[in-house]
Amino acid sequence: MHASLHFTTTNTPPSSSTLRKNPIQITRSPTTQITCKILINPSKKTLPQKTQKPLWPPLPPPNTKPLLPQVNPIKPNIHQPHLNPLQKLAASLLNTIETSLIEPLEKKQSLPKTIDPSVQISGNFAPVRECPVQNSLEVVGQIPDCLRGVYVRNGANPMFEPAGGHHLFDGDGMIHALTLGSANRASYSCRYTRTSRLEQEAKMGRSIFPKPIGELHGHSGLARLCLFMARAAIGLVDVSCGTGVANAGLVYFNGRLLAMSEDDLPYNVKIKGDGDLETIGRFDFNGGLDRPVIAHPKVDPVTGELHVLSYDVVKKPYLKYFKFGASGTKSRDVDITLDQPTMVHDFAITQNYVVIPDQQVVFKLSEMIKGGSPVIYDPNKTSRFGILPRNNVDELGIQWIDVPNCFCFHLCNAWEETSEVGDPIIVVIGSCMDPPDSVFNEHKNNPIRAELTEMRMNLRTQESTRRVLVPGLNLEVGQVNKEVVGQKNRYVYMAIAEPWPKCSGIAKVDLETGSVTKHLYGTGRFGGEPFYVPKRKNDSMGNQVEEDDDGFIMGFVRDEVDERSELVILKASSMKQVGLVRLPARVPYGFHGTFISEQDLKEQA
């Protein structure tokens, strides 16, 4: 959520934490030793004129091939010989405008921390190179049998050094994959998702697509946008295949792993038999999808449907809802009427409803003319949730219920209840963030708070209540058992986002008792989003059943003191570590992940 611009790599593979008084238990990871050494090596690579240096070292580790050519070879081609004389003249003119007008304007600007590259991509937020499959990783403890498959996690990994402002969310998408097998076998790889944007920039040897958050600020942002539109108009860049970075969400649906961001269609990434990753391409659901989707679609564990939202920051309708059946067939779009374009990063489903947040962080492009960011907090707007029946073909049945002073960047789950007097209630669990726009805009004297909160909305009275479940502790990117999405659950597994934006551990929150059990990674050790994998078991009738915490939690952890990266595995019921995999390369802090079982891997499309 996220000095010199450098990164670390490994040159050799390894040798083999109720409302009132909450009881809190704490466990800590044991300290371990590792023999491999991390080298820090700023890039010195020289590129042709008007190119930028990639953010990786000039030489690969021993016994590996060069970075980009491993999948779909790309060679920098800044001169673009396919252009006709008129295009070449226009390209030269636009390059001159960029270097003589736009770049000097950007250099005069004082960058806030939220878009300062020296902050946003420093330390373990800095990018890394691709890593081919590394086998026979060292395992400490035991990998549980139910974890046979692949844990994949997405993140932002900019290929080129930013010329101006850069937000963590602007980076190119990279997926880190850890394959877990029988007999404690583990292997690791990481690859860029080969978006249209990435491939075009790699061919040109420079960053050319504008960064939506980092660069599109004020007058220089307007100039950047106009420059890009001019380049697209004369055929210097191709926008017909999207402009997204596919760096945020991951969902496995209908035999496909989909990498997602807010600004494009998803990208289908295949997990190969050896654990490597291959981008198949931009996925439009066989012609059914023609617009960007948000990074957090919801898979209904009962029906197998994939529920999706799509927002537009320029034209009405600003929001649409649709779903895909278990076989991938798309429903008709339901247009959702909003007064202004609004950031909708996440939403929730219940058995019968879709729960749609309409909150106070909005898009206002006119702010750029005033010299500001187009992503702003609107204090005159009242946050609300729309409760839409899942099978509606239009928005006529939606109920909007105000939930004042509420901004949830991420929602954990939602379900339906009945009050003591028989009123239908929608319960939503999510992290309420304050200041609401603190991810995008700097608030020097107002530290960020992200508190796990319960919101209850009465569908008869249209009244709401809001209750902080764990006061005084920053908890974000929460997970529940995916088998109970849309149903009442007992436990939520949260990243302890302290010191912000790093995550120092995992908190298991019992929604029934209010108790909080923490697992802290230890001094100088930080992770990210935890992911819960259920441990399936059979009842006396042979049916698969499980408790809400009868499974395992996993996530990548970086030891900033000893300079090593690991996968940590916890038993959810005790919050004790049962296994650890030492990784052969640095894994930066990232965004969201998922686990794909061995069986699901066999059924990839």
From TrEMBL:
- Cofactor(s), by name: Fe(2+)
State the residue spans of region: Disordered.
Answer: 1-22
Which residues are recorded as binding Fe cation? H296, H345, H410, H592
Q: Name one GO cellular component term.
A: chloroplast stroma
Cofactor notes = Binds 1 Fe(2+) ion per subunit.
Q: Please give the Gene Ontology molecular function terms for this protein.
A: carotenoid dioxygenase activity; metal ion binding
For this UniProt entry, which segments traverse the membrane? none
Superkingdom as given in the UniProt entry: Eukaryota
Q: Where is the composition biased (Low complexity)?
A: 8-18
User: Which terms under GO biological process does the entry name?
Assistant: carotene catabolic process
InterPro entries attached to this UniProt entry:
Carotenoid_Oase (IPR004294)
Tell me the keywords, alphabetical order. Dioxygenase, Iron, Metal-binding, Oxidoreductase
Family named by the database record:
Belongs to the carotenoid oxygenase family.
What's the protein called, per UniProt?
9-cis-epoxycarotenoid dioxygenase NCED6 chloroplastic
Task: Tell me the lineage of the source organism.
Answer: Eukaryota, Viridiplantae, Streptophyta, Embryophyta, Tracheophyta
